[in-house]
Structures are given as C-alpha cells and as structure tokens.
Amino acid sequence: MKVLPIRRRAKLTVGRIEHERLVSLVNSMADGVIAVDRNLKIVVYNGAALNVLDLNSTIQGKSLVSVFHPISQHNYPVDVEQYVKNVKASKIDRDLRLKYTDGSFVNLFISVTPVYRGFAKGGQDGYVLVVRDISKEKSLEEERDEFISVISHELRTPIAIAEGNISNAQFVADKTADITEVKKSLAQAHDQVLFLSAMVNDLSMLSRAERGKLTVDIEQINIKDLINSLISDYRPQAESKSLLLTADIGDDVNSLNSSKLYVHEILQNFITNALKYTHEGSITVRADIKDKGMLFQVTDTGIGISHGDQEKLFHKFFRSEDYRTRSTGGTGLGLYVTKKLASLLHAEITVESKLNHGSTFSIYIPNTN
User: Rounded distance, CA 228 to CA 240, Å?
Assistant: First the structure.
C-alpha cells in the first residue's frame, strides 16, 4: 500500500475541506447555482438548481447541454453550448424560459460568469450559472405594463369627449345662446365625468384590495331601500337606452347583516355591466332570502357571454374579444374588484349566460353576526 507524503496528504485534506465548504455555501443559496468546466460538464450544483430545472436526480458529471433546455420568448430552442461559451464577461439574461414536462412554462433569470484560474484568459477553467424562476416578477411587470396601457387608453376617450362637449357648450353660449344645445353638451360631458368617477372608484378599491387594506364594517342593511335606491340612480340611464329597469324583491325580504358599502358596490357593478351590454329589453334586480343569507340576482336581455369568456370574467383586465364588448369602454377591473369584495363577505358568485340571450349574475351573501 502506497503511503502519500505528509505534505501531499495535508494538501488533499485542505482541498477536500475547501470543496466541502464550497458545496455547503452553494447549497445554502436560494438561487440555483451550476458550476461547469470548460467542456460544460457539471462540477457543482445545488438543490435550488434542481428545482428550477424540475429534476429530482443527480446531475453531477453530466453535460449542461443534456439537462438545461431553455427556449426564447418566441419558443425557439437555445443553443446552450454557444450561449455559455460565447460569454467573455458576466452576462445577465431575463428573456429565456423553460418548458416543463407538464406543459407549463417558467421565466428565467440567468447569470453566466466565466471562471479563470488566473488573470490571463488562457487560464479559463469553466463557468458559473445562477438561475432563478422569475415568473411571478414577469407576471407583475406584464400586469403593470398592461395596467398603464389600459388606463391611459380608457382615460383618454372620456377626457377628450368631456373637453369637446364643454368647449362646444362654451362656443354655443357665446355665439347663439341656444340653451337647449348647451344643456345637451353639458349632459354629455357630465356622463363622461361620471364614467371617470366610476373608474377612479374601481382603481381606488382595487389598490386597497391588492394591499389588503379593505376592512369589513358590518351593519344592518335594509335591502328594499338599498335596491330601490340603486334602481332610482340608474333608471335615467336605462331610460336613455329605452330599457326597463325594475326590482323584484321577495315579500319576506327585510334586512341583511353585512357591509352596506360592499353590497352596494357589488350590485352596482352588476347593474352597470348589464346597462352597458344590453341594447334592448330589460334588466331586473332580484332579492330573495336563501338559507341564512340573501340571494341577489341581476338579469338582463343583453348580448350574453360565451362559455369561454365566462371562465375569465373575474380576471384582472379581462375584456372579451367580442366586437360588441370592445365597442364599449371599460378597464376590465369592475368584476375583478367585485370578486375581491365577495371574498371578503364570504359570498358566492355564479354566472349564467348564453350568447344573444342575456345573462344572470347571482351572488349569495350570508348574514354576518
């Protein structure tokens, strides 16, 4: 048996200790780390890297190319060998993705850094890759960009219409003093201001809901008074479109213990949606006692909602591709906010609809003690 010299044995021991320290350090990192040699053979990696790669077996000694298969944002496969070996200095990339075996995708943060033995480039030893799943960050960025795009577009139209009508009213007042025309222009401007007010209300409610700042103040709500007040508020808008807006309240309906503000907001959103997408016929607001709470329904004879769109109705910023929906303004936030409020009230929302045959939005709100 060959015995190694003491110095060499000590050197090997120190090297082993340093390697164990390195492995321990890498494993303690939250980001995935993969160290490869000049031929892209994996030398060191950690558990976080396996999570990102969606693997559950060792990749020690395997080629990086065999286990790492990123794709571009346009779904083209990336040549990993060229991608890594072309890096001469640290490189950061946030535009690649991975597709898992179940068909899902994750967005990646990738940092590639060459490792050199010394200062000379000829001493290159390999590369260190840091990988992280940034799908949530990407989603938030996309939501932010879409939010800015949607809001800027939706604000532009009512502001332009309101400004135009006010300018027209001023012009008519100065030139002809036709009070009828002035009133008409001011009424149209007022409608746009109300639209802006509703949008600001949605945005304010959304902001508080997203930050968890909404609180539920329970009080006894007189349901008949609440619904009749809503009917009174929106009847002029319904009549302007020759629509019949009515209430159908059960004889035994009296009061409900819940948040008056949120119940009002939910029913208001249902009614304004019905008014927006109903061009002829009627809208009915119903209330009936059910179990230990109240069942509210808003039924219209409007354009209806396709089965595919019904599944996305309460998603943030969702707007149907139906041209009849696109022809009306809206941020796609009203029903999303409604869903948030319903959750706070422990309420259940259901939708029944058929294209060209109207819709019924129902919500069961339990009594809260």
Answer: 19
